[in-house]
Every structure is written in C-alpha cells, then in structure tokens.
Design a protein that fits this description.
The chain has 115 residues and is mostly beta strands. It contains no helices and 11 strands. Strand 9 and strand 10 form a beta hairpin. It is globular and about 40 Å long.
C-alpha cells in the first residue's frame, strides 16, 4: 500500500499550488480521501475531504473558497487545489485514505507561503 504525494513547494502569498496524492495497493474508489495539514508546534488538522462515504465535502473554515479537493478514480489520485495562499497555510500537508477498517497516510509534502 502506498500513497505518494507531490506538488508542494514555496509560493508567494496569493499564489496557487496543486497537491496530488496517488494511491496503489488498495481499491482506491472505495476509500474516503482527505487532506490534513500540520504546522510547526500545532496539531494535525483536517483541511478538506469527506467524513464518510457519501457525506458532503468538509472544508476547514479558513480555507473555504480557496481550496478544492477532487479525485480521479481512474487515476487513483486525489488532488488539493490551493488558491490565494496565505502565510498561515504554511504546513506539511498529508493525504489520508480510510475505510471502516484501514487508514493509510501519505508521506507528507511541505507547503511554504512566504514573500
């Protein structure tokens, strides 16, 4: 089982990034996919995703209107489009796959928003 992330980096305030998370080793389409982040000295928090299969999409209040989660089941990939990035979005971002039995995490990717 693998979740391989890509797309992080350094961006100026107001810029955009798209994170990708490609899965292998499990039936991707049957799993709930979420994005989390963890800033230095803070707990990991849910940024975007579904609490359970079929539920509405959740977004952290501070990212609503700026971030969009999407998935392509044919490519076993989940994306996080991040627009109008702010310095407070700086964190390590993780994708997470879960079902009733299993939880898998990506390796994490650093997003730094700074001028």
């Amino acid at each position: 089982v693998q979740l391989v992330q890509s797309g992080g980096g350094l961006v100026q305030p107001g810029g955009s990034l798209r994170l990708s998370c490609t899965a292998s080793g499990f039936i991707f389409r049957t799993y709930v996919m979420n994005w989390y982040r963890q800033a230095p000295g803070k707990e990991r928090e849910l940024v975007a995703g579904n609490i359970s299969r079929g539920s509405s999409t959740y977004y952290l209040d501070s990212v609503k209107g700026r971030f969009t989660i999407s998935r392509d089941n044919a490519k076993n990939t989940v994306y996080l489009q991040m627009n109008n990035l702010k310095p407070e979005d700086t964190a390590v971002y993780y994708c997470r796959a879960s079902n009733l039995r299993d939880v898998y995490w990506g390796q994490g990717t650093q997003v730094t928003v700074s001028s």
